Fold this sequence. Notes:
- The protein has 34 helices and eight strands.
- By secondary structure, the chain is mainly α.
- It has two domains: about 1-5 and about 10-15 and about 370-810, no CATH class; about 45-285, Alkaline Phosphatase, subunit A.
- Helix 18 (about 440-445) packs across helix 19 and helix 18 (about 440-445) runs parallel beside helix 21.
- An eight-stranded mixed sheet has the order 4-3-5-1-6-7-2-8, sandwiched between helices.
Amino acid sequence: MSRLLVLLALVALLCYVCVLAVLRIAVPPPVPAGVAARAPVGARLSRHLLFVIVDGLRYDVAMNARRMPHFARAMREHRSAEIWAGPVSMTSSAILAYGTGQPGGLEQIVHNLSPARTRLNSWLENAHARGLEIAVVGDPAWVKMYGESIAAKRLDPKGAAIDVDFNPETFRGVRELRAGSPDVLIAHFVTPDHQAHAYGVHSARYAAHIRNYDAELAGMLREFGPDWTVIVTSDHGAADTGTHGADVPIQRRSPIYAYGPGIAPPSSVPESLDQLDMAATFAALLGVSAPAHGRGQVLIDWLTLAPEERAALACDSAVRLAELASAAGATNVRDGTLRCNARQNPEETLTLAARASSAARASLTELGSSTFRAWWLVLCAVALAVGILWLLQGANIVSAAPLALGVLVATVVGLYYNERLPGHGPNAVRLFFFVVCNVPALLLLLRPARAAELVEAHPVAASVIAPGLLAVSYTAHVQPESYALIWVGALAFVFSGRLGPGAVAPFKGRLGIGRSDALLLALGLLILAPAGIKEKEFLPDAIAGSPQWLLGLALLSIGLWVLANWRHCLRSPRASLLVVLAIAGSLLLRRVSPPLLGRTCIVVFAALAVWALWQHRAHLAIGLGLASYAWVSRDFEFLPLAASLIIAGKVGAALAHDSEEPGTSGGKLAELLLLAAFAFSLLYVQRIGVQGALDFGAMDWGAGGFRDAHVSATLVGSALVYKYLLAGLLALGTLLAAADSRYGEPLLRALSMVYAARALSLLLMLFFCGGSYWTALRVLGDLPFALIGSVAAALAYLALRFKRRRQPEAGFRTPSSASLTGA
């Protein structure tokens, strides 16, 4: 028992360290205190400023005279360059950079879906304070991030499908607001990006759209008179598929051109700009203070300035950056600015200012680096994960370590470079590995006896392949692979029985369960299909949008669960009826229950479930657990939850049906590895189904709230953790209650190892590959469930061992080769 308590302590520490590491990696450093906007330097250069963002416009598309003839000509005739987005190449990151001069980091994973009001000083705030009028058309993120500074707006329609072209509305909004002669007019056209997402950059639909947009844009720009300064650019580039977010050139590189008052003539020297420099440049054009927290410099070569004015602006940028770096904790960054204000040749001042600015920006980049702030936490997580594996497996992990480490490194390195492949390369790689990884599964289905022989002959390699590969794979790969393994495990155990020399292929075997149970198993597998193969929208719109239909599905799910457990219900009909009434009543009452009653019921039913488990009434405990779950659930969640419990119960029954004594059939390691992969896969797909989508944005952010307007984030977070932990425990409990008792401890020990490896691999993916928006989004959405799975497996292991101590006569038998390494 002491070893189990140590295991729980290590798992808890691993969860704590992973959460700290994620916060260090994903949460930006605090805004330096005591930094204020400096007084503006120089006169106003532009009476009216038009800033146009063509969302998702790639540099090569804009420079192609056949695709965008007007844009390509403007790039040749005006001051132009290529401009690079930050490593997280998303819209909200670019809007933050253009407004504040600060790069967007992994926090944009959340903010890109729902932009938040920025705490950073921006040129928009400084212009508003000076009485300048700012108008915005298009993307509402500008208003959400800089709300008080925006005087007039015409925003995109809400809820429009991604393939809908609402460019005409945006052009009309620009013309309406231009009539009011604002000092600044920002026009953000999002439809080009949406069209690329919907059809691909090289599709005929996108080509027609972007050519028509090019003509419309050129016509609109001709309506702006000579007193307008015009700057046209994009927020990011795009891959061939239209996606973006990664730290790759094709997704970061965009065009920019500018003309009008304050803008210098075209340059014959190719230029490459940083989005961060635009914020200070806008401020200089408008004659307002540069953003106090901006890391960018004024693009003095782009402005029509006298030599003395250029030197003054460059020196002011250097001093501002040095003050910001010093406030952030850098040392010796002000030394380079001491001579900047001295009277000297303007060219010498420019040289000194450039040198000082580079030093300050380098310090700011280093201080803001997530790797700089989190590397020691990642090392602690590695040590804790190794400790968990050693505690569960002992010296056996030494023999598996080289191969396992090689697979982990290959996975992380492959993920880093996969999103950097051109064209449809990333999708091709995913498809290739999906096929390759399913070859062992195909062998298991066609020749299970041979597969068992290979596992017993090569235990280390077999353990690393399954479930090891699942533990270290990228989230988007694990989803379809998990669903495939649920089918493989169900077919193998239901038709082949225990794996060994005498095992037969499913198409030659006999059902290990009754026909009615087999039909329910098949129904459960089909219900889980959307969660296994789709990223979102698991239900038809007509059902998903109807509360009555969703409630009906939830009640139907309860009925299916009762039907799948009719034998248990017949043994104790009164208790079963009370449980069913408790579940259904909870579903109905949670709609009108006050917060105190609802939260009390969560705890009461959970306590009753623990009591029933103490009394060795597993079926009653699971039913009471479902009643507790009903108080923190959404109606649609009961369908995938019930399906996962049905699948777990029927596979467990098939394992219990084969009554051969341990040691008579061989293949015990093969059985354990397949069962561990099956259990992990079932919980993985169950989580996606309950969540309602692959990504974490679909979570029930009102869990435990009960319409309380003042519910805390801590309470909602606790309710979410409880919900997913309970769902996993219910599935594991159903599987173990139905299966032969000899599988319990080896399976839970194996799952504890798998989840520890999963948590560590996801943390390493975030640490080394988090520069990609999509990688960080998926990893951050998956890591909490790896930690919850670790806790669920450890708690179930503790409960099983405690039960064994209370009932030693039950004879909990462990296969001699239950080790994941077979030693």
